[in-house]
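Deliverable D4.2, example record:
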Amino acid sequence: MRRAAVLLLGLCLLWPAAPASAAEHAPTGWASTGPGTTGGAGGRTWTVDTRAELKAALANDGAPTAPKVIRVVGDVDGHEREDGSLLGEQDYAPGYDLAKYMSCFGEDGSAWSDTRFAYCRQQRQLRQTGSNNEKAQIQLTVPSNTTLVGAGRDARLLGVFLTVDTGSNIVLRDLHLEAPVDHFTSWSPGDGARGSWNARFDALTVITGRNIRVDHCTFTDGRFPDGAAPLGFHGERVQRHDGLLDIEDGSDLITVSHSRFENHDKAILVGSGDGRGDRDRGHLKVTFARNLFTGIVQRAPRVRFGQVHVVNNVHRGRAPLYALGVGVESAIFSERNVFRYPGGRPSLAVADYGGTRFHDTGSWFNGRPARLNDVASAVGLGGDVGWDPADVYDHRALTSPAAIERYVLRHAGAGRPYGRP
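Output generated by the structure prediction step:
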């Protein structure tokens, strides 16, 4: 453990990572249903401040699914070697060059050719090798029966590709998650009208996970905003980030609460794809409660197949492409959310992405009733979603926009004070 962290660790042990109230520890929403979500409560406690220590704690001395609480102190960097030094692009794929890679598509990025330049075949191979090497380094998987919690106010996972893969009963709390930069993002000329970059890594991906609670976390691009990326084709920036949070492949009974999603393009995706109903149909039951979305361009969230409850969230900042995306066979129940997009229109709050069912109760747009059911109806979305959160779990929705904004701005995010659930 780093010497500089010793004093901080001592202070953190005196500073609880969360309030002592049992009510404030208890999950709300979908994560409270089924067998419930307790994480690693009662198990062994680990305290970590390096990637190597975090990886060892997740392995839990060969018993990864036994209950455990892992306390993160300070910064844990996904690119950190065992000796504490940091890996960079050239360490993962010596000789890779983004400009050379792009040149092999031609000036307009319309088509790749291995023979366009002598180096093109090599650059294609280096990009794939680098991508696989980076993934192997930064991906850390959270097993079942784990609580991963920030100790103190400054616990950060930097460039870590955190995943849940078939895990259940997991709590992530009080963590600042900085989305990984994909050094080997790929260009797809046929994706969209003019092509698109496709980055590989999310800050958090949940695959076939069950009973998971994400609470009081902050998701952001942090030190590497999109605006600082190099220029790509058509005068636009290279996209080096994927999502902040993806929930896929039949994952179920998840609550995301009191968290911040900041300054990102495609924030949250629920569902694996339009053609993945065999995996997702009947699952993807997710609650988003009292979160802050600020500077998010789209997917806050975008949903396929799932029964998703969005309640008392605050959306604000620059006008997005859209906030709530209603995808194939999704059933979104929106309840008393606040949207503040100066100069925007309520149609920014909800968009049809192949769905048919959406219902809103009492949301506001720029201080006025949003009438989102009328907005949804205008794009072909019906008002009956076939379920009501009140029939599934107990929850208390704040009922005025001022109270919601006050609460969310004060309590949402890593290191923020806890309020009543």
